[in-house]
Amino acid sequence: MPLPPQDSSAAAALLALIDGSGDDEEDERVLERLARSAAAVPGVDAASCTIAAPPGGATRTAASDLVAEQLERVQQELEEGPCRDAARTRTALNDIPMVHPQSRVRWPAFTQHALDAGITAVTALPITHRGHLTGSLDLYHQHRALCPSDARWGQLLADATAIALAHRTALRSARTHHDQLQTALTSRVVIEQAKGILAERLDCTVDDAFDRLRKHARAHRIKLSDLSREVITHPHWATPFVRP
């Protein structure tokens, strides 16, 4: 049975978020795609998202248009708003009316900015993966409530983004680990070659050659692998180790 047009569009957006999550595109592009896809959910007029800053990094945001960008920036600068609360509590805030007195009490500055921009209600959804907070997604709407099924689509988009980002993080970690292992292996091969060359050059055992390499590297504060490359690539009289 074919999906209704609105469901087909949401399903396509969901697949687009997951597809390509293993390529080399920047995480910011994933967030931009989430914001655009969320803004296309029926009943949503604009959307923005925030991803928590990694250790030593910066918080990343994306928005579907200038209104959403402004409201996202207001929440970050004022440290108030439904997006921040949804992230802090890891709980969805569905269809929050901005004209409600409680909204004015809870987020006074943000609420006024939202109303000035023509936004009458906000749905804020946490972005989490396996219990770990990633960020939050804000759906801004005007003059009509967001029905539960559309809010669920928004949450599915947020969940798909969390999975995509987690997959990309794991892939980058695996690549880094692979590169580190490759570097260590290459260095080990170079050191072994230098040990053999030096043992022959100085007419000593391989263990003695390695001991001399290690002591010289430590005394001159250079990497053992760099010293080993010098032994391999330079003539014997141009290295620190000359046969007596």
From TrEMBL:
Record InterPro entries: ANTAR (IPR005561), GAF (IPR003018), GAF-like_dom_sf (IPR029016), GAF_ANTAR (IPR012074), WH-like_DNA-bd_sf (IPR036388)
Protein name: ANTAR domain-containing protein
Organism: Streptomyces formicae
Keywords from the UniProt entry: Transcription, Transcription regulation
Pfam families: ANTAR, GAF_2
GO molecular function: RNA binding
Presence of keyword Disulfide bond: no
The UniProt record lists the keyword Repeat: no
The organism's taxonomic lineage, starting at the top: Bacteria, Bacillati, Actinomycetota, Actinomycetes, Kitasatosporales
SUPFAM superfamilies reported in the protein's UniProt record: GAF domain-like
Residue ranges of domain ANTAR in the record: 171-232
